[in-house]
Amino acid sequence: GVSWSAVIGGAFVAAALSLIMLALGAGFGLSAVSPWSNVGASAATVGAAAIIWLIITEAIASAMGGYLAGRLRTRWPAIHNDEVHFRDTANGFLVWAVAVVMTVAFLAAAASTMVGGLSNSGEAAMGAGGSSQASVAGDAYFIDRLFRSEHVAATDNDFFVRAEAAQIFAHALLRNEPSAADTAYLAQLVAAKTGLNPNNAERRVADILAEARQTTDDARKATAHLLLWIFLALLIGAFCASYAATIGGRQRDQVQLI
Q: What is the DSSP letter of 257?
């Protein structure tokens, strides 16, 4: 009951159309997900236009793949119409499933390649400490704010102090409440590097930790919101592929031999 050649062909078409339309959306700044580096919006900045484009992309690509699978399948003679309708629906659903797996695999491979390139470039630039610094790159802005001073003077141990502070900072963000010992030690580092008195250093550490935690929570909520819309887009894609396969199959069976 499954025409795998038609299913795989339709899946390739659906995956290719998805990537093409993602590239088009990225070109207009509308893409929510992009396989290319520094292209597309982050989860926190994805707007209504990007979400609509994502839904349209999934619907068009899935419908085209499902229609081709239904139109290209072999004809099932002496089969009840209800069974034919079910098989066409199942073939269209398989097209959508295979296309989603192929697209995700491509995006994952592209993302791993970009991450590997960034890691290699970071190690080449910073030596053995590159990997530890790369792991906390997302917190670099807050680390810089910790050590801001009116008397800017770079020293040889700046990198090591900042790396140590970054590790403490990252560990503190993983906990609901940072330990008092880590907070006190971080305040000592800030006071030593910036010249602030201990009270002001502790206040700066507490304020920046709170701001970083709020930023992390906002990003987590935005990501969850985006995932809900991605779920809706995929659900619409599954329906479009299944329904379009029944249309293509019905047209395939109505062909008259001349």
A: P
Burial readout 151-182 (b: 16 or more C-beta within 10 A, e: otherwise): eeeeeeeeeebbbebbbbbeebbeeeebeeeb
Task: Taking each helix axis as running N to C, give the angle between helix 4-27 and helix 198-253, from 0 to 180 degrees, rounded to the nearest 10.
Answer: 140
* Residue type at position 116: G
> What are 87-126's pLDDT values in tens digits?
888 899 999 999 988 888 877 776 566 445 544 544 444 3
Q: Tell me how far CA of residue 40 lies from CA of 14, 20, 30, 47, 201, in angstroms.
A: 21, 14, 7, 11, 38
Query: What's the gap between Cα 17 and its chain centre?
Result: 19
Compute the Cα dihedral for 217, 218, 221, 223 and give only its sign.
negative
DSSP 30-85: --SS-SSTT-S--GGG--HHHHHHHHHHHHHHHHHHHHHHHHHSPP-TT--HHHHH
* Phi and psi, residue 157, nearest 5°: -100, 15
Element (H, E) at 178: none
